[in-house]
Amino acid sequence: xTLLIRVLLLIAYGLFFLSTGTSALVAATLTAGVARIDITxxxxxxxxxxxxxxxxxxxAEGIHDRIWAKAIVLTDGTQKFAIITADLLGFxxxxxxxxxxxxxxxxxxxxxxxxxASHSHASIEMNAFHPGNTFGISQIGIYNPQVHQFTLAxxxxxxxxxxxQLQEAPVKVRIGTSRIQxxxxxxxxxxxxxxxxxxxLTRIDTATGKPMAVLxxxxxHPTFMSSRQMWFSAGWPGHLQRTLETLIGDxxxxxxxxxxxxxxxxxxxxxxxxxxxxxxxxxxxxLAAVSHELWMxxxxxxxxxxxxxxxxxxxxxxxxxxxxxxxxGKEYGLxxxxxxxxxxxxxxxxxxxxxxxxxxxxxxxxxxxMAAGMGAEIKRVAGEKLSVxxxxxxxxxxxxxxxxxxxxxxxxxxxEASVSFYGPQLGPVVKQAALESFxxxxx
Length: 443
Description:
N-acylsphingosine amidohydrolase activity; sphingolipid metabolism
């Protein structure tokens, strides 16, 4: 075959993919920038802890361990994408839009980033930085403009710092992902149904082999601490990240993101002691040890597929579950008249799902707390459609809209259903959007 014929065939091949409107699988060497920022509010800011209405908006009394946000920005030279993880309960739905407005002049758009909260129940109260929270109800948290501006400013600094590193000192990276089944560490708290045992780890090294970043995905609520613990803490995910950073060394940045944890609880490790702080620490430290073994066994490669796709969708009309007044309503001190006023201000009408693929890893962002069985089905289809070995769910991505359940689970009721605010169709609607968010792979 002559050189001219080869060139003509390559051109025809490229034109075929352009004409079909699909993207060919083209592996590329990525460059990356990484940053982190301490987002622990000063105690004098009187920031409430989120996760339990029983705390009655009381401010944190101390700092057990500091809470962090971390970012990695990846680019193949034609597109870039930021993964941002944070030791937070969740993000109120206006927050990402606010962040995008802050960084738009620096070339950033909404579909170029994914915010992933760990769901720590000893971190910043989500409604403390929700500008629509004008109700002054202690059980749901009271809006604090100082906390709002502090948090927004820190996320802007974080993203721009990672982006600046990418621009000023770009580092070529090698990436690899591994997944194992880790049984006995979590369970389905509804006492039935599916438990997600996947531990998925993504290793990101420089081209010379120096550890740069690690992404860890494991599905369980960070709920060892109760409403009585009044110090800031990242919970067991914080211990996981710090310990794994120590084990690996080289100033590596470890970033944890949760999965479809709507019905998943952690199981205490043996001999953890009676203290809730001890239970959280032992869980995170031992999970870090397992993760370190997986990290050492994970190979990396320089040329990987890299793409993302976002689907926006309308949410069903927001309303409360018939069981809500006996569960969440009682915990949060709400009445029917208050709910009628609050829902239009606190709950979104539209949302989105984004899937990003990085080599053999895919992360499908879900804007809330999805039941693990639904998440497993999305992961299964992602593995087939994207031909990836390690599909994951990024739980609580970009916004907390509520718990996300199957129609059957919503109708059955219980705590998770009572804190699902868009009726029985929410689960099917979000699942469909998640499946449609997979990047196109070919004709």
